[in-house]
Amino acid sequence: MTEEVKNNTENTQIGATESRLLQAMSVAEETLEEQVAPVEFSAYAGEALAEGENKAKMIDIVEQIRTVSDPEIPINVYDMGLIYKIDQNDAGDLYIEMTLTAPTCPIAGVLPQQVADAAAQTQGVGKVEVKLVWEPAWTPDKMTDEAKEMLELI
To answer: Does the pTM of the predicted model rise above 0.85?
Structure first.
C-alpha cells in the first residue's frame, strides 16, 4: 500500500469497505504499469433468512436497487445499466455483479456498498454480495431508454 493511502486510511474515519477499496485501488495503481487487471472488490450486507422464510421476488429486489443513484448523475444504478447480474439462491441470498462508468470513478467504494445495503433491505433477502467487475466495460448503450431520456434533460 502506498504511504499516502496508508496515511489517509489511518488519519480519516472511513468505513471498512472504503478502507478495503482504497487498499485495492492502491495495489491496482502500483501494478497498472505491469498491465495487471484491476483488483476485484466486493461489498457485503444482510443476514441469513430464518428457516421457512420466503425469499424475495426479483421484481422487489430490482425496485429496491433502483433506490440507489450515482450522486453525480440523478439516475439509478439499475437504469444506468451498471447492474450486470443478480443471482438468488434457494436460501434467499443474492450475488450481484455491477460495474461503474469508469474504473477511476470517485465513488467506487460507495455505490457497491449502497447496492448491497439496499438489496439487503428487501423483505425475503438474506446475505448479499455485490462484486465490482470491469468486463464488459460499461457503455451508454447499457442504459434503459428512460435513463437515456433523463440524461438528455440534464
So the answer is: no
